[in-house]
Amino acid sequence: MAGIRSYGAYVPRTRLPLSMLGERPGKEGGPEKAVAWNDEDAITMAVGAAISCLEGFDRTAIDAVFFASTTHSFREKQAAALIARALDLGRGVRTVDHAGSLRAGTTALRAAFDAVSAGSARNVLVVASDARMAAPGSALEANFGDGAAAFWVSEQDEIACLASHHALADEILDVWRSEGDPFVHSWEDRFVVQEGYVPRICEAVQGLVQQDGGELGDFSRVALYAPDARSHATAARKLGVSSEQLVPPLFGQLGNTGTAFAPMQLALALETTRPGQRILLASYGDGAEALSFEVGDAVSKLEPRRGVRWHLERRRPARSYDAFLKARSLGPSEWDPGSNPGLSATIHFRERDEDLSLRGQRCKACGAVQFPAQRVCETCFNKDDFESVRLSDRIGRVVTYTFDYFFPTPDPPTVVTVTEVDGARIHLQLVNCTPEETRLGMPVEFVFRRIHESGGRPNYYWKGNPVEDGSPVEA
Amino acid sequence: MANPESIRDKVAVVGVGACKFGENWDQSPSDMIVDAAYEAYADAGIEAPQQQIDAVFTGSLYSQKGPHECSDALKLWKPVTMVSNYCATGTDAFRCGVLSIAAGVYDTVLVVGYDKPKDRGVSGPSVMLDGVRELPKTPAGWFALCASTYFEKYGAGREDLAKIAVKNHHNGCLAPKSFLKREITTDDYFKARIISWPFGLYDSAAQTDGAAAAVITRADLAGSHRDDPVLVKAVTVQAGPNPQKDPSNDFLSWKPTGWAARDAYAMAGISDPRSEIGVAQLHDCFSLTELLSYEDLGFCEKGSAKEHIADGAFELGGDLPVNTDGGLKTFGHPTGATGVRMIYENTLQLQGRAEKRQVADPKLALSHNIGGHPTACGITILGPS
User: Which end of chain A has fewer CB atoms within 10 angstroms, the N or the C?
Assistant: First the structure.
């Protein structure tokens, strides 16, 4: 039976204290929201969540990638194909973008179950990710947060199977973002809640319960999408969800992560569930839908992974509201990043294995690993005799470093290293690392990031993230 | 390896010239080339360059105009070659000129190095965002990569770099054509902003406009130009692997310098560089680069530079004065000109014409450029006739 085999999540490390929105200093311990920083976006967060989801598994089994977002950088050009390339899934994968509605996350999930049940795909990676922008100073700003969740849908080792599904469509102009507009707009909030969100999400949940011939009390966990904390409480009260059942909506910690909100709620529920429990998940956007899951025995065998809780425990407060505006390109800047033609598309295409999949090569004669690909071995000078190797899932070691104050970034300095991985040396920027924390020999994992916006387009590459326990790197 | 006997004493420098280095807002590349070349002509007693110069070797990193820019400025309708080798461009242009004479192809050759970075509208080198793998593409970020490793292994630090900066600021004050003429204190050094740790403002060379030129000729013809020609003892350029990728790089030295030094010392017949060389112009794009070069060139043991710095060995009154004209730091660093500017300074030193910065006994004079990540090194050794 089609079910979820694994899951993962991603929350940006940077948190914006909500007090800063009122031009007050950041308050430790006060409400905050997770914000994608200048090198993060819907794509990088999706890759981060997907890597957590795939951790410990043979990723070559994945034969389809369904991506859901409303904030992918391109109107024309697929995100799922880029995500699949970053994950090094091979060209045999079917890639689909689900977009346009905040409901796209659960829609993509449902589509994956359909595909696996129908046999048109065996292992579907579903990733939902959003970094929506509210206009600075708008009422929406305090509620929005950024994040991603990923699921592996398969008929093997299911930790939770889809039991039932109930959906309804609606035409309502409550929240929207028009072509070319960077900011989400909303009609009067009372209308949005009273005529949109609350009645529709209740209708979807009640419809599913009735359809199953059961009652809401049958569910151990109930996870509800909501635009804000107050409407979430209203919907939960109307439905009669008990506080034990209710998956915490994380307002004041994470924020409303758009298409990723409901999927992240599901990931959070899976992190704390036991075999035999039933989970109900409801999402909203141009209608509403509810999905119910039955948790299987395999859940207790799944190795712990980076879920929502793991990420929430790791945080770094933004330095200032101004730094946040700079990180999201919302402040005026002297230079327009789109004022030059940017990376050559042909070079970008030729280098996609290295830049996007972080593939290097191993010399078949001497065994030396090098990055990027060379025609002549740097070590033994053997020619054209290499095998391609993935480096993105390896652990590197910092060989040397500097702190660059000259490179344009909202938070100078940039920690720049030469990092060795399996013998190959890579010029690599670090994330989540201050100069005081930087050490020679420190182990780092690779994370997919936006490296710059030359040409007015996002350009992606890998950075190093210090490995937390600092465990020694295998030789 | 080069044949060690192939170059030594076969080619002479008979004239040198340089324009004023600096932010030459009112000068075009042509203006600077003419200033430098005509000073070199006068120095060599050349009155009819169109008849007396057989060929031209020119070098520039930023020019997009090719060899024509130099030949058009000077109206020299000759064989003209343009050389590009990052910051070693000037030394490489000089080398090609020397080779052409040593090979017997030409008698008298003009070498011109120049660059005009101040027409680009940015202070310092621009951050190039044309790739993703080598970011940040700031030279300070590249050259700083030896610091954490070297400091940790040998216990050196910014206080040692400060002494190099103070020295080069002092020497620059004594060179008429240098860009910066301002003494600095250690306190100034530590108060300046950081560019890429450990490099602050005073660790970093001043990027300027400038041009420098040399007239070189067959050694046996040199006497017809000057009584005190300077002989080329060695000139070499060495390529090395990208230090960021090189799996055997220990980030304690820049490999091409050691390789080029071995080659140059063999050519010049030098066995003990510290005692045989009396003055040196080293590539101080950043202070640490100068420090590493003391060791990579064999002036002192690896790891010991800070002791020799503390002893003042490389100051004007020391036993081996380095960057007597202020170096890249204060004389200025117009990339293609720098190697030729060093030959200009060493020639003046060997001829006793360096005025307030004159070294008492210059013996042999070495100049050194590194370029790229760095991925190249050029070395020239000159001596008295």
Answer: C
